[in-house]
Amino acid sequence: MPGGIHTALPSPFMFQYIVQSFRRKKARRQFQEYPYETGYFDLAEEGRVAFANWLNPLVAPKVLRQEEVSFFKKFVKKGDLVIDIGANIGHLSVAAALANGKEGLTLSFDPNPHVFRILEVNARLNPEKTNIHPLKYAITDKADTFFYRSSEASFNNGGISKDESDFHGRFVLPTKIQGVVLEQLLEERYREWIPKLSLIKIDTEGYDREVIKSIRGLLERCKPVVISECFGKSTPEQRAEHFQVLADIGYDLFHIDGFFAGTPVVPIRTPEDMNRWKHFDFYAVHQTGTAAATS
Confidence class of residue 153 from pLDDT cuts 50, 70 and 90? Predict the structure, then answer.
């Protein structure tokens, strides 16, 4: 309009961005139970696979890819036992379970009841291709109950503590969660599967090294591949301990850029090397199997 004032209307993209930004802000501050949506992914080797995404606005939708399944096939064969500690909604549990197949077993642990609802759904979705047992426990050095805290009111993730420390955030579950000793649980419920244990993946928001210490006997006994996260807030001393607890029982560590076939692999040779990256994932292979796993 000549001589008039031009007011630019927000584009549909901008409007959507504003709405999503508001939903994310609300999810951080106010608790709400979010539903899930099931989608389907066509993988070159596994065929069509179903996966339930949690519609929490703080959670980016997960996509199942063949290259993720192929990553786990480097370490896992059909019929093996895989353990996922800190499984969240089960994205990597499903990828690993496709690698070891319906004749194998994947135990997926997560004590957070809000993500566990979705994990249970994903455990049921592909019975002709996977065998996943969801278990609502934290892995600890003794059976006990713990506080579970998050920095987000919607409890997308978080961590456990014995006291009321707010290290993981100011939001706390109204009911404590249960911690279990992994080797004891396996002996009681899955004894026949223990010799088939080939991989343990751990992602527990800074608690990984404590989990590793609690399962040391199992690692010495079965020598599975260990996948772990080095938490960004970890101190140099904590990173050194994370390295040493595995190195002391004969493991070699390797930095990875992600869980996909062909991910760059960089050896972590010393405790000091753990400081080369801030927040990262690595896998550790017992020296009896290092050559095969890194080839």
Answer: confident
